[in-house]
Amino acid sequence: MATEKNLYRILVVDDENSLRTMLSILLQREGYQVDQAEDGAVAFTMAQENNYDLVISDIQMPRVTGIELLRKLREQDNDVTVMMITAFSSTEEAVEAMKLGAYDYITKPFKNEEIRLVIKNALERKQLQQENRRLKQQLGQRSSFQNLTGKSPAMSKLIALLERVAPSQANVLITGESGTGKELVAQALHLNSDRKKHPFVPINCGAIPENLLESELFGHEKGAFTGADRRKEGLFESADNGTLFLDEIGELPMGMQVKLLRVLQEREFRRVGGTSNIPLNIRLVAATNQDLAEMIKEGSFREDLFYRLNVVSIELPPLRSRQDDIPLLINKFYQRLKGEGEYPIQKQALELLLNYDWPGNVRELENLVERCVVLGESDELTVDCLPDQVKNKNRNLCGLIGDLPDADFDLEKWLEDLERTVLLQALEKSGGVRKRAAELLGINFRSIRYRLGKLGIGDDG
Length: 461
Hints:
Helix 3 (40-49) runs parallel beside helix 4 and helix 19 packs across helix 20 (434-441). This protein has 461 residues and is an alpha/beta fold. 49% of the residues lie in helices and 12% in strands. The chain folds into four domains: 2-133, Response regulator (Rossmann fold, 3-Layer(aba) Sandwich); 153-317, Rossmann fold, CATH 3.40.50; 320-395, Helicase, Ruva Protein, domain 3; 411-454, Arc Repressor Mutant, subunit A (Orthogonal Bundle), CATH 1.10.10. It has 21 helices and 14 strands.
């Protein structure tokens, strides 16, 4: 029993040395860790420096009373459990303490068994509150990471990395192809950090005209330029205490890169037309689909800014490397459109979807699902509703052959017929001009003439 109790730390506050000492000895015998303070001022300092589970304080004390101590603790957002002791049977001050958030009060003189029971109940309540907060935090993490749909090895690795990075204050650089969900990852980082109750402010650096960018980011004072008829808060200021997401960071002009670097170094900024610096408390998450290392070599991106942004690097996998997630994503987008249910996928359609390269990644898949829901003539996703680039691109040889026969398959004959078909299609597209047909096929004129002659295709173009 003592082993469990000594996990709890209690601060006893009373200006009467005898009562303070007696109560401390009683609690220490019960197995609690106990500190003492002779008045509210000393107790407040100790509570700021130590993590107490319970403060037991007399109400009437010189300098800083128990009521004032409680009020100061709450103003500092200190959620320590506080229990009051009063020598008066009148409950007026005790009621005031309860309104300020005290757990309970007892009156002097008190019985040892009485205070043991009240303390036991207070600490059990404290433990339940902590457990409840922990479970809510875990639920919040699961909920926010559920937005990142996927069970593939690539996504499992990504989510494990995000779980480690999210609670930190480190700047993060997210890289990946267009459409891989960089903003969704930035939101997940925010929702799983201690900044989640504060704003998440996304900015697309490539979408704001260069001449307006500084004012949009940092705000401006009234009269700073023509048309500035009032003070305006910038997006940096709007994100204070929260997370600022700079998407397409590679599009940031060089002049703004210098200003951003200064903000990250100094943790303060100045509005356009302003004369005073404004402190800034943000976590910065940036994203790009460009090769910033190559841009540094070309001189279009600052190396010192890159290292400020790239404290933690997160590379998002392209959809083609996480085929296992495609059916899950299809159902997710279908449910977003329909509100419920699953979207059955025709076997042949699924094969085509899995063999496709997905240059537009998850965003392209989302658009495809919406197309099929709108244009599809059945309640399942079929080949008929797929766009041509999915139906015709990246089919492998087995897909073109169909099921390979058990015997009598002539590979040379099949390849010859395939070559003849491709050559004739190229000639048809080029209007019979062989040189143009060769360019379409990526071969030279001598090669196409040889191939046509070998296959007995007449020299009429």
